[in-house]
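Before going further, it is useful to explain how the protein records used in this thesis are read. An example of such a record is reproduced below.

***
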Amino acid sequence: MSVKNAFYAQSGGVTSVINASACGVIQTAKKHGDKIGTVYAGKNGIIGALTENLIDTSKESDEDIAGLLHTPSGAFGSCRYKMKSLEENKVEYDRLIEVFKAHNIGYFFYNGGGDSADTCLKVSQLSEKMGYPIQAIHVPKTVDNDLPVTDNCPGFGSVAKYIAVSTREASFDVASMAETSTKIFVLEVMGRHAGWIAAAGALAADEDNDIPVVVLFPEIKFDKEKFLALVDSKVKSHGYCSIVVSEGTAWPDGRFLAEQGTRDDFGHAQLGGAAPVVANMIKEALGYKFHWAVADYLQRAARHLASKSDVEQAYALGEAAVEMAVAGKNSVMPAIIRTSNNPYKWEIGSGNLADIANVEKMMPMEYISEDGFGITDACREYLLPLIEGESYPPYKNGMPDYVTLKKELVSKKLPEFTMK
C-alpha cells in the first residue's frame, strides 16, 4: 500500500469534544506512517479543500495536538456548506479531485452530522465515478444526537450534562425566590427536530431532587391548554416550575414556536426564540413572573463541564476512522454500540453511509412520558451513562487553558477557485 496523505475537516455546528475526534484522527494517523503521510486539515471545513486552504497538522507541536483533547469548538474552523450532487455541480467535484491529486490525498475524514455524512457519501463515490481512488470515512458529531446506527453522537453527552446541570441549578435558584418573586424559569435548548437535548433537562429531577420540570419536545405537537394547565398545577404544588423547551417545538399545524421566517445554508428553518414565546404565554394566561434563557452556544461550548464518557467516545471514533481507512474501508462511519447499561459498556461498530446520510433519528415515543411533557425510566436509563464522569480541562490563572493552533497553510499548487 503506497503512502497517501489524508484530508480531515470539521463541519456544521461545533461541539465541546469535536477536537477530541480530531486528536484521535491525527495521533492515530501518525502511528500508521507507513500508510498515511501528512494529515492536512481543511481551513473552515470542506471549503478548505475547494479553496486549497490546507492546514499542515505536522507543523503543530505534539503537545498542542494532545491539547485538542480538552479544547472546545473547531480548532481548524468549520462551515455550513452542503455539496450538491455530482450531476448538479460537477465543477466542485472536479476541483476536489484536482486538490487531492495535487497534494497526494487518498484519505478523506469528514467530522460532522447528517449533512456531513451526505457530503462524505458523495466524496466516497468519486473513486467509482471519476476514476480517482479516495477512501471517505465519516466521523460522527452532533449535539442533536440524531444520527442513525450509532447509539449516541459525540458532543451530545456533554451538552446533555450541561443542560441537566443548568436546569437543576436554575431550579434551585427559582425555588429560593418563588415565595415573593419569580415562579417560572424557561430554558430553550438546541436539537432541531429531535428532542434528545430537551430530554436531558428532565434529569435535573431525581429521587433526591423533587424538581418540577416540564419538557417540550419537537416530537410532540404543542398543546397550549394542556401545557398551561400542567404548569399551573406544578406551581400550585411546588411553588414554582422549570420548563425546558426544544427549539424545534411546533404547533399542531407544523409551525415552529421559534420560527423566524429565515433559513440557513442547508435550507433548514432558522430557529431561536421559543423561550420568550413560552414565558410570555404563561405570564398572559397565569400571571406568573418569569425568567427565561437561551442556552445557545453556551451548551455546546462548555468544555469545562464535559462528560468523561463523551470525551472518550469522541477520541475513540476519530481513532477508529483511521483504523478503518487503513483496513481499506470506504463510505462508512464508525459508531458507538452499547452493550450494557449498568455497568455502562460500549464498543466500536460501523455503519454504511448510504444508511446514514440524510436520516434523522428522533426520540422514540417510549422515551417520552404518557402526558408528553417528561421522560420515562427507559429514557433516563439511556441518558444517564452519557453524562457520566468529569473530564476537566487544565486551568491557568483561574481560566481553562485551551489550545490555539498555528494553522500553517501549505503552499498552493493550483489556480484560485471561486466558490459559487
